[in-house]
Amino acid sequence: MTTVFIGGSRRITRLSQAIQSRLDNIIDKGFTVVVGDANGVDKSVQKYFASKHHKNVIVFCMGGACRNNIGNWETRNISPQRAKRDFNYYATKDIQMANEASCGFMIWDAKSKGTLNNIINLLKRQKKVLVYVSLDKSFSTLHSMEDLFPLLTKCDKKTVERFKKELAITHLMLHQQIDLEFARHN
Questions:
Q1: How many structural domains compose the chain?
Q2: Do residues 119 and 147 touch, judged by C-beta distance below 8 A?
Q3: Is 176 among the domain residues?
Q4: How is residue 84 annotated by DSSP?
Q5: Bridge partners for 129 per DSSP
Q6: Contacts within 8 Å (CB) and 24+ apart, 159-167
Q7: For 119-153, how does the pLDDT look when each residue is reduced to its tens digit (9 = 90+)?
Q8: What is the rounded distance in angstroms from the CA atom of residue 174 to the CA atom of residue 49?
């Protein structure tokens, strides 16, 4: 059975017709969906699946309480390894979703560190990822880490530098011949 990890940026709250079409494909194929409980894409995707009465959804939450579970689906509560509710706290649940998924569908604003981290975690596990970039309304299918770097060219230079620092992606980029200096300048 195919399990799709769906996630994305908290800043994105509306799902385009193109995204909805992909979600409909997931429903039509009866795939299981693992999704987080955050506002933004997680909540919007939950609302969409609830409106379509899709039952094959598991909501991942941290510390025993879900922030959002629109469809009252099965939940998977992940125990935190730290009390501080920071990036690493919530990344614990995201890693578990990447482990359980067969593939991913990420809806990204080309700025969200968490969404990029989810893409990287899936690729490290040799799982393909469909990425919708809201900036230019494009889809890309990533099969390996090499596919990630053209996606990063959609980010502005400052954001790429932040990802290098905060996600330590520089070591992933060393073997690439792609010069991210031509990344979007804003």
A1: 1
A2: no
A3: no
A4: S
A5: 104, 142
A6: 159/110, 159/111, 162/113, 163/113, 163/116, 166/87, 166/113, 167/113, 167/116, 167/117, 167/120
A7: 999 999 999 999 999 999 999 999 998 898 889 98
A8: 40
- Residue 179's SS3 state is coil
Residues 6+ positions from 120 with CB-CB distance below 8 Å: 145, 148, 167, 169, 172
CATH number where 36 lies:
3.40.50.450
User: What type of residue sits at position 78?
Assistant: I
Contacts of 23 (CB under 8 A, 6+ apart): 6, 15, 45, 48, 49, 52
Best CA proximity match to 49, nearest among 39, 65, 34? 34
The span from the CA of 115 to the CA of 106, in Å, is 7
Domain assignment of residue 185, yes or no: no
Rounded CA gap, 165 and 104, in Å? 24
Provide the residue range defining the domain that includes 37: 3-147
Dist CA 160 CA 164 (whole Å): 6
Considering the domain boundaries, does residue 83 fall inside one? yes
Length of the chain: 186
Helix (H) or strand (E) holding 32: strand 32-35
CA 23 to chain centre: 14
Helix (H/G/I), strand (E/B), else coil: 133 = strand
Q: What is the pTM for the complete model shown?
A: 0.88
Assigned domain for 27 exists = yes
The answer on pLDDT for 178 being more than 60 is no
Both tokens of 15, joined, read 């799902």
